[in-house]
Amino acid sequence: MKRILAILPLLAAVVLVQLLTTWTGTQFYLTQMTMAAYYSLLIIGLCVLMGYAGQISLGHAGFFAIGGYLSAALTTRSLVPFKEAALVRLLDSCGLLHAGKDLYGAELLVVTPWAAAVFAVLVAALIAVAIGIPVLKLKGHYLAMATLGFGIIIYRLVLATPWFGEADGISGVPPFHLFSGVTVSGESSVRIMNYYLAWGVLLSGLVLLINLMQSRIGRALRAIHGSEEAADAMGVNIARFKLQTFVLSAVFAAIAGVLLTHYNGGIGPSEAGVMKSVRYVAIVAVGGMAHLWGAMFMGVLLNFLSLRGVFGSYDDAVFGLILIVIMLFAPDGILSLLAGRKKKAATVQPVQQDGEA
Amino acid sequence: MSTELFVQYLFAGITYGSIYAIVAIGFNIIYNTTGIINFAQGEFVMLGGMIAISLLSFLPLPAAIALAVLLTMIIGALIEIIFIRWLKNPSVLRMIIITIGISILTREAAVHIWGENIRALPYFVGNEITTIGIMGARISPQVLWVVGVCGVMVAVLHLFFRTTSVGREMRACAANRLATILCGINPRNMVTFSFVLSAGMGALAGCVMSPITYSQYDMGTGLAIKGFTVAILGGLGNSGGAVAAGLLLGIIEAFSVSVVPLAFQDAIAITILLLILFVRPHGIFGSGEAARLKAF
Fold first, then answer.
1. What pLDDT, on a 0 to 100 scale, did the predictor assign at position B139?
2. How many domains does chain B have?
3. CA B231, B237, B240, B241 torsion-angle sign
4. CB B225 to CB A149 under 8 A?
């Protein structure tokens, strides 16, 4: 409960940012804060996988893209030509389809955002299970290369499939009416509501993960990270816990993809690119691997700066540099540098707590 | 499929295959002395081609290539000395992330120096329409250059590891690091050497392939993935296996063009990589016994 109460100052900060931007007339910052919050949702999921379970993934942009692209394609690509197909009629009778008119007044029949979102997240979870079972048996370089390979396959599929818009991506994704009065959309009239919605989703995810890491599952994951053999000997089902974490982080990525795609009104192939996956890994590393707060904070900060265009044409280079510098000088994250000073002071005391060198 | 078409695809496969083999051997050299997979391996190939193209405006072709290879070797040494040499027992995860960071930085430096344009060295002999006939197929002489240079590189490397003292010291370092130190060899220097060697090989391959496959700032990642696939397929650390596996992958890719769309060609290599990792992580040519000593 104490750990959950730590959310309260953050909540206050979220509200403060909104009020500040309103007073100073700089509400446009909220748009990037909203997007940064969705990216951070993916990042805290990846943080659990990398930091707590100790499994690297260089393919998380792939799961983001599965979520984003599926919900974008289903809510924009018209099903009119397949109107007579049994599946389409079945979906229609379940109320999962939405008929309307497109820009030119032609008949339009698309899947409703809710159905598309649920379907997209389910597909991402299923793919995570199918990929995770063989991939998570691998370690180190092999795991890194296999997940990188998965990411590249998704990128290539997106680029080569006309249904996913090839190099153009998908635009004109309709707003997502979550429930009455709450809509995920990039329109400036609902900007403040979307800001709170994104942060609400992010903080709910954070609370969920913090609780999870304090539970039996969290302890099992840390045991696996420490030593798989030892964890196995203590009766931890390694394969199951690793897979569950992988799927959980994939679902977080897919949800982030769905919501951000509806917010932006579109998605492009760069969202599935390798650089995006590397960027997420970099942010988790800067935040300090097994540090959900650090990952979330860095996720919001770095994504916000990047989205504001602070790094200019050096955007990718900045993330590469961050990655190297952090791994060379502070492999436990930036926050560890502050904590490191305290630790040094503590080692002066005569009693050594453990055999750590 | 007619004989001519078959030979045509076969040569295309061998050309790409020998480049994949060189990249894979570059992975192997560094893996053997350090236990690290250098994710920036593909960037050496890109640097070799790009630097040679820039030098061509001042120097004749052979000198430009020689200087480009030399410069890439120096860059390889610098990368090792600046980022890797002074780390004490870094974890695998840390090394993966550092080499990925190096690869991104190199690529970003390249895009700011050379831009996003596709560039190419001129053909070594003749031009793009010069061909020689082999069994009815029309082959560019550059293809023979690629295959020949890659073949010579593999042979020279083999002799280097068997006969020279530095080569023997590098192999000793791969076999047992502690025993090497006791024999008075500095393994850190051997690691630097291995970076220099694989940078040089990558750069030379990058130069000979440039007229056919072109050079671009972002070619490294794709090559690294395929080189890694080949290295795994041939058994990590096994250079003979890498040559066989490289040719195999190149030929599979070349013939796949007649079955699947070109856009999915990269996906084939990656699918093979995933299948191999799932089913037989010690590779087709590697021994399962030796693989048990490695951490998959």
1. 82
2. 1
3. negative
4. yes
Chain A interface includes B37 (CB < 8 A)? yes
The amino acid that residue A276 corresponds to is K
Calculate how close chain B gets to A48, using CA atoms only, in Å: 15
Q: What H or E segment, with its residue span, contains residue A120?
A: helix A113-135
Closest Cα of chain A to B267: distance in Å?
6
**B190 found inside a domain:** yes
| Position B26, amino acid | G
Residues of A in contact with B264 (CB under 8 A): 156, 160
Query: Does a structural domain hold residue B75?
Result: yes
Domain boundaries, chain A: 2-308+317-344
A285 part of contact set with chain B, CB < 8 Å: yes
Give just the sign of the alpha carbon dihedral B73, B74, B79, B85.
Answer: positive
Q: What residues have CB less than 8 Å from A192, skipping those under 6 apart?
A: A18, A22, A27, A30
| pLDDT over threshold 90, residue A44 | yes
pLDDT tens sequence across A206-225: 999 988 988 888 888 888 88
Please indicate whether, in this complex, the C-beta atoms of A134 and B277 are within 8 angstroms of each other. yes
How do the residues of chain B divide into helix, strand and coil, expressed in percent and rounded to 5? Answer: 75, 5, 25
A316:B108 CB<8 A: yes
Tell me if residue A267 falls in helix, strand or coil: strand
Look at phi and psi of residue A237 and say left if phi exceeds 0, alpha if psi is from -120 to 50, else beta.
beta
CA distance A298 to B193: 38
Could you give the angle at which helices B219-233 and B3-34 cross, rounded to 10 degrees?
Answer: 80
Give the lowest-confidence range in A181-195, A288-302, A340-354, B211-225.
Answer: A340-354
CA of B123 vs chain A CAs: smallest distance (Å): 31
- Three-class DSSP category at A357: coil
Q: How does pLDDT run across A233-266, given as a tens digit for each residue? A: 888 888 888 899 999 999 999 999 999 999 998 8
- Whether B296 maps to a domain, the answer reads no
Dihedral-angle region of residue A140 (phi above 0 means left; psi in -120 to 50 means alpha; beta otherwise): left
- Tell me whether residues A138 and B264 touch, CB distance under 8 A: no
Main-chain phi, psi angles of B243, to 5 degrees = -65, -50
> Nearest to residue A61, comparing CAs of A306, A315, A252?
A252
Cβ–Cβ below 8 Å for B261 and A324:
no
- Structure confidence at residue A62 as a pLDDT band (50, 70, 90): very high
Confidence band of A352 (pLDDT split at 50, 70, 90):
very low
Using DSSP, state whether A184 is helix, strand or coil: strand
Lowest mean pLDDT among A41-50, A98-107, A286-295, B44-53: A98-107
- Number of A to B CB contacts under 8 A, please give it: 117
The domain containing residue B61 runs over which residues? 3-291
Domain CATH for B222: 1.10.3470
Per-residue pLDDT band at B17 (split at 50, 70, 90): very high
A residues 249..278 contacting B (CB < 8 A): 274-275, 278
Is residue A259 within 8 A of residue A200, CB to CB? The reply is: no
Please write the tens of the pLDDT for every residue from B243-290: 999 999 999 888 888 787 777 777 788 888 888 877 776 666 665 555
User: In B, which residues are within 8 Å of A138 by CB distance?
Assistant: 277, 281, 296
What span, in angstroms and rounded, lies between the C-alpha atoms of B161 and B164?
A: 6
Q: For residues A223, A229, A230 and A233, what is the CA-based torsion angle, rounded to 10 degrees?
A: 110
Q: pLDDT tens, A70-105?
A: 999 988 887 777 777 777 777 777 777 777 766 666
Window B:222-251, CB contacts with A under 8 Å = 225, 228, 232
